[in-house]
Structure formats: structure tokens, C-alpha cells
């Protein structure tokens, strides 16, 4: 499990983020909430970038991003260096995103996933380790392809 989890949301994910923080408190997981801290309309890319930057290069850190669908957060986060963000709508997707894809940021949508399921998804994401092996070769291939695009 990660030593620290960085969280971010926009206004459309704020309520679910509060629920997840309660779950993290119950699990005694250390976290930092990078915003938003209100339901006032705001722009999700700012929070996706902040969480991505906080997680980048830290093997002991994971991120959680929440907006209305999770898609905008994932699209933004995946443009940041070192980020492998996955939109997950169930526990299986969260486990596989970590085990096979070494995802370091979980993205969810408050308008899609309710609080009970979100808690289970978070727990699956945080408790699953990257398997490495043949999957490592694929992650390295992603990184090589990204480097060639720059």
C-alpha cells in the first residue's frame, strides 16, 4: 500500500472525494487533499495536474482524482510525465489497473460511481501491487513510445 495518497477533485467530484477521505481515515491511510475544497464551479485540469505532479517520481505515492465522469481527470493526468491514470468503475478494473498497468492514479466519476462502490474501488486500487514480469516490459514500451513523441 502507498505511504501517501494525493487526492483531487473538481466541484462535480467534491462530495465523493469527501466520502473517500472518510474511507482513508478509517483505513488509517495518510493522504493530502490538493483541492478543490468547495462545490463552486472550477476547472478539473488544475487538480489533475497537481495530483500528477505530486505522484510523479514517487514509488510510495498514489493519486485519486474525481470529477463528474472521471474521464476529464484521466485525459489531463495522462498528459503529465510519469502518470498512468485509469478510470475505474469497479473493483476488478482497479485491481487490474494496478497489477497489470502499474496505474499510479485512480480516476472515478461521482455521477457514475456511488460512495459504497467507490470505497471498494479505492481499497482494491490501494491494496493491489504491480505484478511486474511481462507487464513491466509493456510499461517500459509505453514510456519509450512517449519519449519518442517528445
Describe, in plain words, how this protein is organized in 3D.
With 150 residues, the protein is an alpha/beta fold. The protein has six helices and five strands, in the order E-H-E-H-E-H-E-H-E-H-H. 47% of the residues lie in helices and 16% in strands. A five-stranded parallel β-sheet has the order 2-1-3-5-4, sandwiched between helices. Strand 1, helix 1 and strand 2 form a beta-alpha-beta unit. Helix 1 crosses helix 5 and helix 4 runs parallel beside helix 5. The chain is globular and about 40 Å long. 37% of the residues are buried. The mean pLDDT is 96.
Summarize the helices and strands and which ones pair or pack.
Layout: E1 4-9, H1 14-27, E2 31-33, H2 44-55, E3 61-67, H3 71-77, E4 85-87, H4 91-99, E5 105-109, H5 115-127, H6 134-149
Parallel strand pairs: 1-2, 1-3, 3-5, 4-5
Helix pairs in contact: 1-5, 2-3, 4-5
Q: Would you summarize the structure shown here?
A:
The protein is α/β, with parallel strands linked by helices and 150 residues long.
Mean pLDDT: 96
Element-by-element helix/strand order: EHEHEHEHEHH
Percent of residues in helices comes to: 40-55%
Largest sheet: 5 strands, parallel
Care to count the β-strands? 5
Distance from N terminus to C terminus (CA atoms, Å) equals: 32 Å
Q: What structural class results from the helix and strand content?
A: alpha/beta
Strand content: 15-25%
What order do the strands of the largest sheet run in, or round the barrel if closed?
2-1-3-5-4
Gross morphology = globular
Rounded radius of gyration (Å):
14 Å
Amino acid at each position: 500500500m502507498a505511504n501517501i495518497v494525493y487526492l483531487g477533485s473538481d466541484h462535480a467530484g467534491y462530495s465523493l472525494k469527501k466520502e473517500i477521505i472518510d474511507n482513508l481515515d478509517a483505513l488509517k491511510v495518510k493522504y493530502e487533499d490538493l483541492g478543490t475544497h468547495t462545490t463552486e464551479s472550477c476547472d478539473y485540469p488544475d487538480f489533475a495536474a497537481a495530483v500528477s505532479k505530486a505522484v510523479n517520481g514517487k514509488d510510495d505515492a498514489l493519486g485519486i482524482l474525481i470529477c463528474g465522469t472521471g474521464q476529464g481527470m484521466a485525459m489531463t493526468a495522462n498528459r503529465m510525465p510519469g502518470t498512468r491514470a485509469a478510470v475505474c468503475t469497479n473493483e476488478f478494473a482497479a485491481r487490474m489497473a494496478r497489477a497489470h498497468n502499474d496505474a499510479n492514479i485512480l480516476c472515478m466519476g461521482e455521477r457514475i460511481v456511488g460512495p459504497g462502490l467507490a470505497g471498494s474501488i479505492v481499497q482494491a486500487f490501494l491494496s493491489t501491487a504491480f505484478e511486474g514480469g511481462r507487464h513491466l516490459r509493456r510499461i517500459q514500451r509505453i514510456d519509450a513510445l512517449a519519449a519518442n513523441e517528445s
